[in-house]
Amino acid sequence: MKLSEKRIKQIILEEMNKITEDDQAPEDDTKSLQEFKQFLLDLSKNTNQIKGASKNEIKSAADLFLVILRSLPKGEVSKYIQYTTDIFNKKTGNK
Hints:
Elements: H1 5-22, H2 27-45, H3 55-71, H4 78-92
């Protein structure tokens, strides 16, 4: 399955809308959610910065991102996200 940049943006926006619909959070959480939405919008506008990535890398990144987004409403997943981030940074040398 080929994921175009347009489709990735559409998937991100759909997932953001699902989170918004399910969210009945207190004011602090609402602010965080708004900041997250803005981050995703900015990210979708800057996808041209991933030049050189293979279609498999892009699909894998999109799949991982969707798994994380779909897991957020199910409970506290930050420790798993941090663990994944730490391993990824260690293996790739990113910080």
